[in-house]
Amino acid sequence: MTILSRPWFGLTGHTISQEAIPYGTTALQSPKIRILFLYRKRPASWQERYDNDWLGTTGDSTETKDTQPGAPILAILYNGFKAAEEEPRLLGTVENRLGLQEWLTSQGHEFIVSSSKEGPDSDFQKHITDAEILITTPFHPGYLTADLFEKAKKLKLCVTAGVGSDHIDLNAAVKHKVQVLEVSGSNVVSVAEHVIMSMLLLVRNFVPAHEMIERGDWQVSDIARNAFDLEGKVVGTIGAGRIGYRVLQRLVPFDCKELLYYDYAALPQAAADAVKARRVEDLKEFVSQCDVVTVNCPLHEGTKGLVNEELLSHFKKGAWLVNTARGAICDKDAVAKALKSGHLSGYAGDVWNVQPAPKDHVWRTMKNPLGGGNGMVPHYSGTTLDAQTRYANGVKSILENYFDNKPQEPQNIIVGLGKYETKAYGQR
Ligand SMILES: NC(=O)c1ccc[n+]([C@@H]2O[C@H](COP(=O)([O-])OP(=O)(O)OC[C@H]3O[C@@H](n4cnc5c(N)ncnc54)[C@H](O)[C@@H]3O)[C@@H](O)[C@H]2O)c1
């Protein structure tokens, strides 16, 4: 028998006050019986409440399935090569195996780790047929398509080492009753810091300035002609979840003219007031008001190609765009064209529609008419060493819960058994 009750997770933020969620939950369970206790917990900080309650999941399909010791676990990670040998804190690499090797072996599990992920002969496609658990990372995404789900007959759990599980076909996961979990919150500060850095480097025209110095040149006017201050600009985020909200928080001391957000989920009034953010409900209206737009929503059916030629035509001329969410949210060619024409002054981010990005990907070299405006880097904003510690620990804790048949943290569940648990991957 399972008793699960978390009704307050279904409340929407703007209807409740900060004091309205006084209870926490805990659960004990035997293989057959799960008992849920409600208890009064210490008042959480309001950032914690915002993340865990307002952004939280319903968490009502968190039952785990029976698991056998020795079940194969497959991890697709990126190669760290020399860097990973020299730096053991590069946990998210093939070499350092999320720091899980010893523990998993001691538990009797087979742990297969590889970076080979493309095509039928890849380790990913070879081993997915036997794996019970798949660990992937957005930084080197192993794309678990609907076709591969058909072959993954033994698969029960997908764990994303990081945040963002769009590389898993989530509708197929629902259909096949495979749970998808990620380590929510693990790298959101890392990304928010990168967003602020990217805004500054675009607005202040930093990259061409540095390149000029490396070349041995010195011509201040060539840089200053396209350098501005962030102060006094209108900055808006598409998506005001964990990252988007942290970006807004970090912008407050810059004295922007206004902070805006566009999200189908309204911020709790207290949260919006704390950063003085105004919600704009129409996307075209929203982008037409912004000097700087940052994208901080997940990639799903409703956001793929969201920033396309049509939407870009509603941007202010000379606006800057920062996207560390997912490359495919922005139309590759439309962005390159807008930058080339000067309609966009700059585009920066670390996410690409294909990863690793091909050598001739237009985003590597695109420039504005003055030869700047490109702040692209490889996908690393959420994989700082600090973040790697957090998401490696988070993956371990998800696996521990799974092996011990304990409920998972609700905020980590993207897809539960046969249904979406998150509210962030589109309105359903
Ligand atoms: N570059 C990196 O290293 C990196 C690291 C972490 C996360 N990310 C990306 O950032 C995304 C957001 O992460 P988060 O932790 O803030 O997630 P989150 O779930 O806390 O917040 C996502 C927000 O986006 C909103 N949203 C969803 N669809 C939308 C739409 N169509 N229009 C406007 N808003 C919409 C949701 O309502 C939610 O408020 C992740 O899904 C991932 O793709 C990138």
In brief:
The protein is of the alpha/beta class and 428 residues long. It has 16 helices and 15 strands.
Word description of this protein:
This protein is α/β, with parallel strands linked by helices and 428 residues long. The protein has two domains: 6-187 and 384-415, Rossmann fold (3-Layer(aba) Sandwich), CATH 3.40.50.720; 188-376, NAD(P)-binding Rossmann-like Domain (Rossmann fold). It is built from 16 helices and 15 strands. It has a seven-stranded parallel sheet, with helices on both faces. A six-stranded mixed sheet has the order 4-3-5-6-7-15. Strands 1-2 form a two-stranded antiparallel sheet. Helix 5 (146-151) links the parallel strand 5 (133-136) and strand 6 (157-160). Helix 7 crosses helix 10 (242-251). It is globular, with a radius of gyration of 22 Å. Bound molecules: nicotinamide-adenine-dinucleotide (NAD). Nicotinamide-adenine-dinucleotide binds next to helix 7 and helix 10.
